[in-house]
Amino acid sequence: MKYNIKLPMDLETRKKLRAGDEVYLTGIIYTARDAAHKRLHELREKGEPYPFDVKDAIVYYVGPTPPKPGHAVGSAGPTTATRMDPYAPELLDDGLAGMIGKGRRSKEVVDAIIRNQAINFVAVGGAGALLSQSIKKAEPVAFEELLSEAIVRLTVEDFPCFVGVDTLGNDIYDE
Amino acid sequence: MRDVDVSIIENKLREACMAIAVEYSHDIICALKKGEQEETREKSKAALRMLLENAEIASREQIAICQDTGMAIVWVKAGQEVHFTGGSLMEAINRGVAAGYHDGYLRASVVDDPLFDRKNTKTNTPAVVYCDIVPGDEVEVEVMAKGFGSENKSKTKMLTPADGVEGVKKFVLDAIREAGPNACPPMVVGVGVGGTFDSCAVMAKKALLRPISQSNPDERYRQLEDELLEAANQLNVGPMGLHGKTTALKIQIEQFPTHIAGLPCAVNICCHVCRHARMVI
Lengths: 175, 281
Prior knowledge:
The structure holds two protein chains of two kinds.
Chain A: E1 2-6, H1 11-16, E2 22-31, H2 34-45, E3 58-60, H3 88-93, E4 98-101, H4 107-116, E5 119-122, H5 128-132, E6 135-142, E7 151-165
Parallel strand pairs in A: 1-2, 2-3, 3-4, 4-5
Antiparallel strand pairs in A: 2-7, 5-7, 6-7
Chain B: E1 2-5, H1 6-22, H2 26-38, H3 42-61, E2 71-79, E3 82-85, H4 89-103, E4 128-134, E5 139-146, H5 148-151, E6 155-159, H6 164-179, E7 187-195, H7 197-207, H8 219-232, E8 248-258, E9 263-270, E10 275-280
Parallel strand pairs in B: 1-3, 2-4, 7-8
Antiparallel strand pairs in B: 2-5, 5-10, 6-9, 7-9
Helix pairs in contact in B: 1-4, 2-3, 6-8
């Protein structure tokens, strides 16, 4: 199936999505990759708040290239989601609605996806120039000193991806 | 003796780093188009079409094909008749790489300390540099911008002589299967056979410098490359791991004499954006 989805996604929307569906996301997503996830985990350990509301949020595993003048963002394709596996379950348990990346997720992440009725999206790796065209705005949120690894609030329009792992735990890579 | 000012190498490296980040090589584009025609699954075709569209946008807008613009690896083959002038060659190489990444709006992806600090150096340097001294008065410089989604899936193993050709085949195919969707297939796969633990891995990386339209000049290794490519494309990994026939675009093997007790084998996996350039000064 093919869906145009307005973010944030409600539970009904999440439940109807199936692994392999083609989706176009419009709304707000947050960038975070390795170093930012480590920081989020450390904040959680200390009982301090996250720098953005993770409830119903979507995290995009990406570290864009610097924008050229006049561009919101540089090349911005997905990085390997598997590396964020140690951190994803706790974010999902805290309310995260989904993640966008490439590659397989661990059993622990798939279990957390089912438990929290979340979605793991996959975008086409290496299509950073194409995907950047769907990103209309980029606003810094936290950890700017991490450069490309900082958390940035992205406004996306018709961002193309596939449902990777659905709320039942089906996986696009096992189709 | 021939004097070569290191600033020439610096400037050429700057330009090369900028160029390879935004333009695919022609042979890769041809291979992606061929894959798009041969795939039968709609999703697999769509993924390849997105990569081709991405290539057009990157070239037209001169923005990076992929946000992982890689770590720079530089090979210098310096003729022994060459006298480098104008300061340190190593510093010039790193200045060239830093300038290319800065001026090309490419991502600084290098951290200073791998284990403890992991602080971004902000310049995408240092580059990994290999130097060879060769006869003559020319300097050949090759640069590769290696992404780490695929680098992370690379492997080295000390096979034994008894493992032989079958052992090499199994090791290479297992590595490709395990790399799966994470390594951004369709992949180009560099394989090193022989040498020592360390030199074998360097060979696997060096194999990725060969254009994919060229095979190993030794007939036996050429055949092995073809056989492995056919087998890899039957693993059903497919473009972006969405299944299909286009898992690898080329297997490139490099070999070197080794010890009577050993058969080192290394697999360096590269995504479809196999970025490298060669210049002769």
